[in-house]
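Sorry to interrupt, but I need a hand with the structure work. Could you add the entry underneath, on a fresh line?
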Amino acid sequence: MGEELPILKGILNGVVNYHNAPVRFGRVPKREKARILAAMQQSTNSRSQEKAISAELEDDQRLLGTVIRAHLDTCEFTRDKVEPMMRRARDQPSYTACPPTLACPLNPNPQPLTGQQELLQDFSKRFSPAIRGVVEFAKRIPGFALLAQDDQVTLLKAGVFEVLLVRLACMFDAQNNSMICLNGQVLKRESIHNSSNARFLMDSMFDFAERLNSLRLSDAEIGLFCSIVVIAADRPGLRNTELIERMHNKLKNALQMVINQNHPNQLGLIHELMKKIPDLRTLNTLHSEKLLAFKMTEQQQLAQQQQQQQMWGSMMAEDECNSKSPGGASTWSSSSDVTMEEVKSPLGSVSSTESMCSGEVASLNDYHHQSHHVS
C-alpha cells in the first residue's frame, strides 16, 4: 500500500496521466474508488472534448466559411432579402399603427386581430421559425455541438433574443424613422403608444438598430458577430468557461480578419462593434422584464375572470333555488343592477398587447423546453 499511496494522491490531485500510470486500488473504499474513477473519466472526456474542438477551430478559412454559410442559410434578414422590401416601403409606404408589444418585424399582422387566440397562433407561427433559425445557426458554429449539453442550453437561452435583435436591426429604417414589418407595412416610430415602459423599450431598440446599421456591416460580418454573441464565456451557469473563452477569441479573431479586409480605414470598428454587446444584454433584460410584467398581468386577469365566473354561478344557483321556493319568485332581472356585460369575462376587454406578449412568453417557454434536447 505504501507504493500505491503516491499514485493515489496524484489521482486525487489530478496530476497523474491516467492513460499511462498503473492504478491499483487495493483496499480503497468503494465510494472513494467510484469518485476516483469518475474524476478520471471526466478528465479523459474533457481532454478529448478540447482536442476535438481545437481541431474544429484549427482551419481559419474553414471556420470563416462555416459560420458565414450557417448565417446565410438560417437568417431571413440578409441584405439581398431585405433591400427589395426596404425599397418598396420607401417608394410606396403603407403606414400602420399598433401597440408597442405588437411592434416587431416578425409580426406578420401588426394590427390587432378580433380573435385573441387567432392573434397568438398567428404570431407564434412567425416567432418560432426565427428562434429555430438561431438555434440551427448556433449548432453549426464549429465546436458548439461538442460542448457539454448543459453549456449548449445555457448559451442558447442567454443568446437567442440577442441574436434575433442583431438580425432584425436591418428592418429598422433610420432614414424614415420607421420599422418594416414582414407584410410590408411601415410602422412610424412616433405612432407607438400605450405605456411608457413599452415605449422606452421600443425607443431603445430603434436607437440600437440605428447605431448598428450605421456601421454598414456585410452579411458575413453580421454572421460572425452573431457567433460571438452566442459563444460568450461570461454567461452565468457555464461549466467549461475556459474552452468557451477560447472559442470566443477564435471567432473574434476571424471577425477582426474580415473587418480588416472590408474596412481597412476603420481601425476601431471591431472595438465599436464589441461595445454593442452590453447594449444587447440590456435590451434582453428589458424585454424579459416586459414579458414577465405582461404575463403577470394576464394571470391576474385570469384569476379575476375565474372569480367573476364563480360569483355568477353562485348567483344563478341561488336564483334557481328562490324560484322553486313558495313565494320566492326571482327578483334578479328586476332589482339587480348587475348585467351580463358587467360579469362577463374581463378577458374580453384585455388589450391585445397583453395577449401578444403572453404568446411570446409561451413561445420562449417552448423553446427552453426544446433546448434541453439539443444534440
Remarks:
- The chain has two domains: 1-13+24-58, 59-294+357-371.
- The chain has 14 helices and four strands.
- Residues 1-13+24-58 form one domain.
- Residues 112-120, 328-375 have pLDDT under 50 and may be disordered.
